[in-house]
Amino acid sequence: MSSTDPRSNPDNFCYRHPQRQSFVLCQRCLRTICHECQTPMPVGVICPECLAEQQKGARAADVKRMPGRIARKMRSDRPIMTYAIMIVTIASYLIGLIPGIGDTVRGALAFNSAALLPGPFFEPWRMLTVAVVHASPLPFHVGLNMLALWALGRSLEPALGRGRFLALYLLSAAGGSALVALIDPFSWVVGASGAVWGLLGAMFIIGRNLGVNVMPIVILLGINLVFSFLGSGISWQSHIGGGLVGLLVGWIFSRTRGPRQQGRQALLLGAVAVGVLAVSFAVPPILYT
């Protein structure tokens, strides 16, 4: 039989603070709690442990009710477009190693400004497909390009979004082809270097506008530029053309970040595409035919 003296009855003292007398019970676990441990709820007061358990259950219910939103957020942080471009490029390179097939694949996808001239061999898509073929049987060229794409894409794609990242990559590839057509016409070019240089240029502009230290990017650009001019068989025109377009697209992205500026951003990107196509299709026929 329990004592009638409240001071000798442990149930009349807070379970978390045994020295504090109380006659208030948690409405969930029915343990005695003092004023410091009480959390008012619509059905009464509850103790800290019951409050934490209730909040945990509420979060679990929210997660259960919103699986689509959470899944979309998780997917948006993954550079899926970067991985897709890498898979296509590496697959094209491996197919290019197959005897009897490789030369055909490279010949169908490589870029030559002659493909932009009116006639039976008009094949303008080569301005973009050039980025998925590599000529060297050694994986050095394609390996460096894919390593750079992976390193840059992990930062740029989540920041820009997949659509903008793809637009940047394709415009940079086309920009590299355009400068080749303008300065080094009728030469065959392969490789994703122009597109990768576009990513570097965009990263430089975006990073500078965000206040990020861009010196490592400047050093990397300088090293690549030296190799572009000194290396044999390397199209520096493609590198420079892609880099210039990347700088321009990066500037557009950094200046049209607001939700109300998306229409202007689309128009400016369209203008860049028109400019690249004008340089590719209008200038070479005038100069070289």
Structural notes for this entry:
A two-stranded antiparallel sheet has the order 1-2. The chain has 289 residues and is mainly alpha-helical. α3 crosses α4 (102-109), α7 crosses α8 and α8 packs parallel to α10 (236-255). Helices cover 62% and strands 2% of the residues. The longest helix has 22 residues, at 162-183. The protein has 2 domains: 6-65, no CATH class; 79-288, Up-down Bundle (Rhomboid-like fold), CATH 1.20.1540.10.
SSE blueprint:
Elements: E1 39-41, E2 44-46, H1 48-65, H2 67-76, H3 80-96, H4 102-109, H5 126-129, H6 140-160, H7 162-183, H8 193-209, H9 215-230, H10 236-255, H11 262-281, H12 283-288
Antiparallel strand pairs: 1-2
Helix pairs in contact: 3-4, 3-6, 6-7, 6-8, 7-8, 7-10, 7-11, 8-10, 10-11
Question: What is this structure, in a nutshell?
Answer:
With 289 residues, this protein is an all-alpha fold. It has helices spanning 48-65, 67-76, 80-96, 102-109, 126-129, 140-160, 162-183, 193-209, 215-230, 236-255, 262-281, 283-288; strands at residues 39-41, 44-46.
Features:
single chain; 289 residues; mainly alpha; Rhomboid-like fold; 2 domains; two-stranded antiparallel sheet; 12 helices; 2 strands; 62% helix; disordered N terminus
Overall, the morphology is: elongated
Low-confidence stretches: 1-7
Cα separation of the termini: 112 Å
Q: Bin the helical content.
A: 55-70%
CATH architect. name of the largest domain = Up-down Bundle
Strand adjacency order, main sheet: 1-2
Average pLDDT? 82
Number of E strands: 2
User: Compute the gyration radius: what is it?
Assistant: 31 Å
* H/E series: EEHHHHHHHHHHHH
Instruction: Spell out the CATH superfamily of the largest domain.
Output: Rhomboid-like
CATH topology value of the largest domain: Rhomboid-like fold
What is the makeup of the main sheet?
2 strands, antiparallel
Individual helix count: 12
Beta-strand proportion: under 5%
Number of domains: 2
The CATH class of the largest domain turns out to be Mainly Alpha
